[in-house]
Amino acid sequence: WDETHFGKMGSYYINRTFFFDVHPPLGKMLIGLAGYLSGYDGTFPFQKPGDRYEQHNYVGMRGVRPHRLFCAFLGSCLVPFAYLTVLELSKSLPAALLTAFILIFDTGCITLSQYILLDPILMFFLMGAVLSMVKCNSCADRPFSASWWFWLSLTGVNLAGAIGVKFVGLFVVLLVGLNTIYDLWDLLGNLSLSLVVFGKHFLARVLCLILLPLALYTAMFAVHFTVLNKSGPGDGFFSSAFQSQLIGNNLHNVSVPE
């Protein structure tokens, strides 16, 4: 059912047709990009669930054996992400292997990763954010090193990705936020650190975990509105002034008073 929904939106991006959806644009943009790069021309109608794709090249967006492409690839990344996260937290190889084994044979994870859905994309960024956060915590003994900056910045990138796919990504923002508050509180109680050093820690987290995700999230919408420049089913949700900028709309290039 959802494949007809998000596959159609991937086609809208390829055809540059404006639409409106309750979710932020990143997931659908990535689906459209995967389809475009793999040769899909955006002509499949996605009218009802179960329609045969026939000659349409859909595997780039979906991921069907032996074509382990976009959604299937992101879904398969969850296994090493989970393995590395548990290994970092527990320092136990058996625990990490058990986690990976459970995910490999999880029917729900396998099923979600086979179709053109937002779920594997969302889970990729969610687990990426958790892994990056855990890796950054492990670098706490060498703050402001290259690896510390890398994992902290990557956490911010993954936060932007999670929110940019679905707003449920805010839950991982909450998790990282609580972890950051705990870290800063711990640093504030460390009497061997000067307030200047504490201020650097604070500003580094503001830069990587607030400003960077906000900038990336805003950039997603900038790309979204730049690409979708043709009239489509989402026109009516926006103002007349906005509709006048869409090619093919009845109001295109019409002078609209304030």
TrEMBL record:
ArnT-like N-terminal domain segment(s): 1-229
Pfam families named among the record's database cross-references: PMT
Recorded topology in the membrane: Multi-pass membrane protein
Ranges annotated as spanning the membrane: 67-86, 93-115, 149-182, 202-223
InterPro entries listed in its UniProt record: ArnT-like_N, PMT-like
One of the record's GO cellular component terms: endomembrane system
Keyword list, A-Z: Glycosyltransferase, Membrane, Transferase, Transmembrane, Transmembrane helix
GO biological process, any: protein O-linked glycosylation
Subcellular location: Endomembrane system
Pathway info: Protein modification; protein glycosylation
MF annotations from Gene Ontology: mannosyltransferase activity
Record family assignment: Belongs to the glycosyltransferase 39 family.
Protein name: Protein O-mannosyl-transferase 2
Lineage: Eukaryota, Metazoa, Chordata, Craniata, Vertebrata
Gene, per the UniProt record: Pomt2
